[in-house]
Each structure stands twice: as structure tokens, then as C-alpha cells.
Amino acid sequence: MSAETAADKAARVAALPIWFGRVDPEPLKGGITNHNFAVLDRGQRYVVRVGADIPVHGIVRANELAASRAAYLAGVSPRVAYSEPGVLVLDFIDGRTFTPEDVRDPANLPRMVDLLRLCHQEIPKHLRGPGFMFWVFHVVRDYAHTLQAGHSRHLPIVPDLLQRAEALERAVGPIDVAFGHNDLLAANFMDDGRRLWLVDWDYAGFNSPLFDLGGLASNSELTPAATDELLALYFGKPVDDDLRRRAAAMTAASLLRETMWSMVSEIHSDVDFDYGAYTAENLRRFEAAYNAFNAPE
User: Fold this and answer.
1) CB of 80 within 8 A of CB of 63?
2) Could you give the C-alpha distances from 281 to 71, 181, 262, in angstroms and in order?
3) Which range is least confidently modeled, 31-35, 70-74, 170-174, 194-198?
4) Cα atoms found within 13 Å of the Cα of residue 139, Cβ hemisphere only
5) pLDDT tens digits for 228-245?
6) Over 90: is that where the pLDDT of 272 sits?
7) Are the beta carbons of 258 and 217 closer than 8 angstroms?
8) N or C: which end of the chain has fewer CB within 10 A?
9) Beta strands per DSSP E along the chain
10) Is the dihedral of CA 114, 115, 121, 122 positive or negative?
């Protein structure tokens, strides 16, 4: 059986039973775990996400749906208008997608922190069904097994990466548990001119707040001073050496996860994307973050 093409997915979107008339799905850029389309129906715009479960990345679309619904009720994300297996229809946000430069803008840090607090504290009050967790060090270990089974070209360095992951996990230590987004790329923030939204809940789950904070810092390459400001705003107090070190460990771990995510994608993804270059870039950034974490104080 051949894989579903982008045209097949567009036809599937056009045939959804929620539309009042004929629609013409428009492909949207971005999305490397699914295909996204914009749909205009009777003057209302929607975003339609099409994608199956991805076991090698721990993506379970039922969990994404539960998180998306709870995020809407918590005031974090747009409304889920419709869903069926492999399809998620959301209200369209007429706004601007953030870039790393927007994340690095000091004026945006308080806005993003307020949104993260809503995510971490309010989504659990609305989440239905079984709880689900995202623990980056489990993800890294599972990726190592997947790379071994897939005979990845990166296998020679995997034992060293796992050893360093163990050191990072020890440094993080005991955690507070919140509901994390767990994929805080700049492009998952949107600004409609009045407020920020957080979108795309593929990897959502209970986690340490430090992972979202570390991911936000690493994905948009915040300076050490800006990272301290981010932590101080979130925790409401000056950053001490213990918090700084634990956050640095989680920041490095977020880059290790992104690196190994890309390694796995090199052998399992059929999306047209240069995963080899993405692996190399994230490995370089992980090495820098790990060396900074491991530098003598």
C-alpha cells in the first residue's frame, strides 16, 4: 500500500463532514511531523493538521487532541473545531508567527512567561483522560534504542551521548511537575496583536517546568543574561547558583533531545527536510551547551 501523498491529504481535508460547502484546502508551510492546511468555510478560517501517530517519536494523536482541548479551555490555544483519527481542525489565528528574534526581544519575555504559567498551571485543570508524561531523559534513552535498531550512522557516538545524559539527569535532580508544551520553538508562539497563543501539542505532557524554560532558551539561543531574566520572571525571585545549574542541565538536555530526534528522523521520516544538516547543527549546539554546563565554576 503506497503512502498517502500531500494531494491525498488535501482531498481528505476537503471531504471532512464539517464543511458547509465545497472548500479548497491551502497547504501551509512548516510542520515536519504532519501536513497543515488552511481552509476557508463560510467566512471562517481553520487550520487542519493531518498526521498519524509516530511511535518512534512518542507522538500519540489522542494525547495531542486531549492537550489541545485542555489548552483551549485554559486560554492558551485556539479552539478544536473537529477531530477524527489523524485529523485535527482548529480555529485559525490571524496573527504573526514568532521568530527567534521575537523570543530574544526583552519586551516579549514577560508575555511568554505569563503564557507558560497558564500552560503549566491551568491546563491540568481541564485535561481529560489518562495523564501522560514527557521526560526528556527517557526520550533520549528510547531514541538510542531506535537508532540501534535502525543501524544509524550515528551509533559510534551514542554511548557517549547517553553517558552525558546521565550526568545531566543527575544535575537536574528532583523536580516539580507541571504540564509542559515540550516543543518551544519560536514558531509555536503566535501574536495576534493583542495577546500570545501557544500552538502544536504533539509532545505535550507532564514534565518539569525547567524543560520548557530550557527549550525556550536553547531553541532561540538566548544569552546567559536573558536566560537568567527568563528564570527570574518565571520563578519570581533572583536566580541562585543551584537553579542556574539545574536549568543549564535541562537546556543542554533539550538540545540533546533535538539532536537525537533528528538522528531518528534521518532514518524514519519521509518528510522532505534536510535532517542531516539539522542533526549537525543541533549536535554543535548541544556540545556548546554541555561544555558550558560542565565548565568549572
Assistant:
1) no
2) 31, 23, 10
3) 31-35
4) 26
5) 999 999 999 999 999 999
6) no
7) no
8) N
9) 26-28, 35-41, 44-50, 80-84, 87-91, 96-97, 178-180, 189-191, 196-198, 205-207
10) positive
d(CA 162, CA 172): 15
Element containing residue 145 per DSSP (H, E): helix 136-149
User: Is the per-residue pLDDT at 114 higher than 70?
Assistant: yes
For residue 163 the three cell numbers come to 553517558
Q: Is 60 helix (H, G, I), strand (E, B) or coil?
A: coil
More confident site: 31 or 52:
52
Q: In a 10 Å sphere around its CB, with 0-12 CB exposed, 13-18 middle and 19+ buried, how is residue 231 labelled?
A: buried
> For residue 72, how many other CB atoms are within 10 A of its CB?
17
- Yes or no: say if 170 and 142 are a contact pair by the CB < 8 Å rule: no
Angstrom distance (rounded) from CA 41 to CA 190: 22
CA atoms within 13 A on the CB side of 294: 14
Cα–Cα distance, 151 to 133 (Å, whole number): 28
pTM to 2 decimal places: 0.94
How many residues belong to the chain?
297
- φ, ψ for residue 48 (rounded to 5)? -115, 120
In the beta sheet, which residues pair with residue 44?
41
